[in-house]
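Homework help thread (please don't just give me the answer)

Our assignment gives two proteins as sequence + structure token strings and asks us to describe the second one. The first is just a warm-up. Here they are:
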Amino acid sequence: MVRGIIRLFILVFSISFLYGNITVCYSNTEEQHPSAKRVGVLYFEDNSRFDSSTGCGCVPNFIGRIFSTKKMWDLEVGFQTMLNRKLAETVVYVPVSQDELLDAMAELTIPRHRLKKLNQEQRSALAKHLNADILVLGEIEKFSLSRMKANASRSLRESGREAPSTSITASYMTGVGVMGYRHRALVKLNMEIYDDSGNEIATFPVTSTRYHSLAGTQVSGFQASVTETGSEMRFGQMSEKHGKNTRPIVKPTQLNKIKFASPEYDTTLFGMVTNDVLIKVVKGLRDSYGPNFITPWEVEVTTEENEKEVKQVSDKPIKITYVDSENPDLIYINAGSARGLAINQKFAVFTDGKPIRDIDTGDILDYIPVKIAIVSVIEIRNDRLSIVKVLEKSRDIKRGDFLKVFTTDGVEKEE
């Protein structure tokens, strides 16, 4: 009799625990854009021959192989990570996380190198397993940085006229130098897009090129330089670091210290052209599959309907919309300039804790919020998207966790 009661208690407890877990998973589902589509970026194949062991690819490969054998920049993983970020910035496209993709590959026994060779039936099974509306594959055909340089110099001698009241003649000699260089970064991709049934929607090439040039003239101590970002004049030795204009990083010694797909990578000429080409990929996805929307990188014409939509968005709670598995410090939230966010503004991050149940029915009414982190805004991408960095945390932050404004007295309030 006692054993029977114990077994019954264990059974009831197990059912209650399972029900609670199912409800927790459901409650963590974030409110999405009404036209949101889940996108699984499966694989990028690198056929660019960018195999320099020095990382940036600016040192000839045979020299790199002599001094090192470790490849620093993994383009296949890097392009996948950066495209997921661009998709998250749209709010309309929800990228499948790397963990979700790895779990699905493990359950379906698909090795990474086979992702590009799946047939229609296998793609359909993978899409259903990921609950993805779209599957994307890419090929990196070209990824290069080239430099051209030219310079010339000569000496000038000038003799002065004799002054009427003296016999002194003045003369001077100075050097004149003209120099210039031009960097070109080029990325070319071939993209494949499939729907959730595994059928091909579109294939298209995407190419982007960025230039960085500097032309300067030096006459003795006076120097003038002109770049694509502006011009400057000064006395003294000319330095590429000098000047008010920010120039993209192109030097191999600097590039070799930068991790691919990191925030610092975006400040390089390589990073700029990579972001350019991935923006074109997102637009190509929109144009070939849909839905029709204005991306964050296009100018939107303000209408009463747009203003109403922005107001509706501003009334929703601020939540974590994407966590970058490659760079955990890069966390995207579904709020931006439309919510009046400011750089360095702090938020407390909360997740769902223990459930609050109805005393009579046992139904879950809500969850006790648990504070797990404090974050600060580091970049406002557009009216609906910002990036925050973690200042402190007690557990990992996940998609769907919500934010409250953090005040100096430690009391959080709703935004």
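The one we have to describe:
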Amino acid sequence: MGTSSNINQSITPEKPRKGTFYYIQVALGVAVLLATTFTAWTDPSLLPGNFGETLPEALIIQTAVAPELEIIPTPRSNPLVALVAGHSGNDSGAVCPDGLTERSINETVAAFARQSLVEKGLDVEVLQEFDPKLDGYQATVLVSIHADSCDYVNDQATGFKVSSALANPHPERAARLTACLRNRYGKTTGLPLHNSITIDMTSYHAFSEISPETTAAIIEVGFMNLDRQLLTQNPEQVASGIVEGILCYVNNEDLSATTP
């Protein structure tokens, strides 16, 4: 046999040659590192222009933040009706010898009227006599509920009264609301219309406090003497008369040729 070298020669694989793209990547990496170090340790005011602001932004991947959504109030879908329970939160109003108060009648009628209007799909708010909300209050309709004196005057001191403001920015609206209340309330309760409208009604304080765009009226639902039975024993019927009058206005219902 011929002699052979017993020295195992290890074959070292040839390292792959690095292409141009590799060196470009290295160069860019070094540039980024130097730029980051430079801006981190350099006063931004010493950098030219806005370089100190734009460079970090270019190097950092920012997470997009969703802009805040503007909150837009949802428009009211139903008409808003305000009922003022006369003398509520202030005083008793007229008082009968046996202690019956006008305020108690007004509050009871307002509660029944509110319940009925809500059931018919309207938004309703019951306010007190001198409620702070009255200042600039905006609603489709505002009706203030009162009752007349408990003193016996004569046999003609029976019936109801309805009035709007003496000076009204929208007289046609006020006229229609009062006509609706007179017509529907008279038909529902059977009470006659009493025409003794007082300055306290035409100059009712709430008329000058609420928004000019709010159509308003005041109603005296009956006399606490001769109409006492209806006012105290059938407040639902009294409330129904007011509700029907409000619906007549809100729904623009047809009015008969003659009103009570």
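TA reply:
I won't write it for you, but here's a hint about the kind of observation we're looking for: Residues 176 and 249 are 7 Å apart (CA to CA).
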